[in-house]
Amino acid sequence: MDADEVLAGVAPLVAEGAVPGAIVGVRRRDGAAASIDLAAAGVTSPGGDVALRTDAVVRLSSNTKPLIAALALCLAADGLLALDEPVDRLVPELAHRRVLVRLDGEDVVPAHRPITVEDLLTMRMGFGFAVDEGPCPVLDRAVALGLGFGPPDPRGLPGPAEWLARFAGLPLLDQPGAAWRYELSYAVLGVLLARAAGRPLGEVLTERILAPLGMTATGFVADPTRLVPAFARDEDDALVPFDGVTDSHWLAPPAFPDGRGGLAGTAGDLLRFAGMLLDDGGGLLDPAAVAAMTTDHLTPAQRVAPGAVPFLDGGGWGLGVGVVGTAAGPRYGWAGGLGTLWYSWPDHDLAAVLVTQVFPPTASVFAAFTATVERALVR
């Protein structure tokens, strides 16, 4: 399978205007050698005439999470933290948590135990989105406090200390470890990792993950010469500007390097990261760490809870990646809310990436991409 074969499944939707353009990529192994193949269709803007290039820099949004999870495992291997330790040592602001008795109420009880680092990695910290679960005044306050609910915005958040102070003033929605909730755990995790390393998150991520893998286009600041614009769908389903190029919010270092979704990068860089995992860590991570990262950690009840279903769709969650079984075998990876998608099929030693820049992600394009790859894998 090559990128042109995958692009053939997506290109008709690009031609119809579902998205202005799309980049697809495949990382596969031929014998002893691994290769990355990229292809693109369409343009950078609706109605525009600038062709979308395969090396375009895009906003990775939630495809940031797998990289932050891998960094956590690197720092754990260094002895700077332990997955089973309470976060209290590095994030004392979150010690002695209180927990809501009911989502729609204000009564609280003490947390049964501290939040652990693993709770952050598995998104079982006890706080996150509550989709279709009725009113939740505490979540309303979280939104009002500017903690970041919605698409990523590097200019929209305060610095880490202020962000944590605001968050620490709220009770948890669930007991630590009890429920899976998207996605604030990774904002906390990014702060914790920076404190563990004693340096800004972007610096540590570059040193331990990005530079060793040759992910030279990925970071919290985008290369303006390769960045393409991003768009959002309005209530009439029309594409309107979300983030431009010359005025992009990704052109300056953010006050809050957001582990949830703050990175920009390329399809090729995502495939380099995917290849590291397929190669049992490639010397960067221990194979046991890769196995932990790509194995479901949730209970059956947690996978089908109201807060999880809209995001996991019946699948599970490892450390920074979704995990699911398919006709093509086990699959892991994750999507970004601004239109990026990465999946790996370890039984086939293959990874594939789709990049668009439309919020929310265009379901028909995501589905066509996934179906095209998996049809090829099972034929």
From TrEMBL:
Pfam families: Beta-lactamase (PF00144). Keywords: Hydrolase. Residues 10-372 form the Beta-lactamase-related domain. The keyword Transmembrane helix does not apply. SUPFAM superfamilies: beta-lactamase/transpeptidase-like. Its EC number is 3.1.1.103. The keyword Hydrolase applies. One of its GO terms (molecular function) is hydrolase activity. PANTHER family: BETA-LACTAMASE FAMILY PROTEIN (AFU_ORTHOLOGUE AFUA_5G07500), BETA-LACTAMASE-RELATED. This is Serine hydrolase domain-containing protein. It comes from Actinomycetospora aeridis.
